[in-house]
Amino acid sequence: MWNVETNETMPPVLASRQEVEQLLRPPTQRQNPERKNPVLTLQILICGLILLCVVAVRTISPPLYETFQAGYRQLRYQGIALSGEEELVKFASAAVRDLSVQAMETMQRLSGENTLTLGYGAGGWSRRAAPEGNSLETLVPGNTLSLPVRGYTVTSDYGWRSDPFTGKADFHTGIDLAVAEGTGIHPAWSGIVQKSAWNASYGNYVQVLHENGLVTRYCHMQYIFVRQGQRVTLDDVLGTVGQTGAATGPHLHFELFCNDVRYDPAKALEAGV
């Protein structure tokens, strides 16, 4: 049998007044006064770390202060879509790690200056001295030194830096003068060839003994044109620029010694320009 459709409608089921009040009542929030806010703790940590880094950089090298200022501004105004307290905690933790890395990198970039650089150790921030046999003092010889090559670009200064092979902190014992491979290398001052040799680090290198305990060393040479014991003058060619040994490209690694201690050769060369 077919069901007979009718237009009859059923009356709506209405909620009671008590049920309506229950539905409209705002939910109560559980209070836990003993619970500490991890977000506030992380914010304080971030602010403290930023302040420490900025003060250190601004004191040692004002130009690098702008780098930290730009990084902080980006961190502050960057739009962040957070779904809850857990995401904020993750973001804050990552920010702390990033700031720590930036601080270490910035300290290493200070190595090119003729000052003691800052290093972070077990006792916190401290002055980082040069390794034994090296000095951060400026040495300007009594006699003017001549440039060993012309038309160069300084690609790495003397002092603390990030090692190009390992990425770790390393003390660079000279300055790197990048110039075309095959360029002639002249002695910075007249003297006697003390060494004409090769090793894994310097590659082909020449060491010249001058007066007053002064010694200059020329490394990563392509070819060597002099021998040990030979007297050389400014007009002689010691060899040519190359990339032998531990080198990332053609350049002259130039070192300056005085009484068996290395010094930054930059000031000595600038005095001769």
UniProtKB/TrEMBL annotation:
GO terms for molecular function: metalloendopeptidase activity. The chain crosses the membrane at residues 39-57. Residues 171-265 form the M23ase beta-sheet core domain. The keyword Chaperone does not apply. Keywords: Membrane, Signal, Transmembrane, Transmembrane helix. PANTHER family: L-ALA--D-GLU ENDOPEPTIDASE (PTHR21666:SF289), PEPTIDASE-RELATED (PTHR21666). This is Peptidase M23-like protein. The lineage of its organism: Bacteria, Bacillati, Bacillota, Clostridia, Eubacteriales.
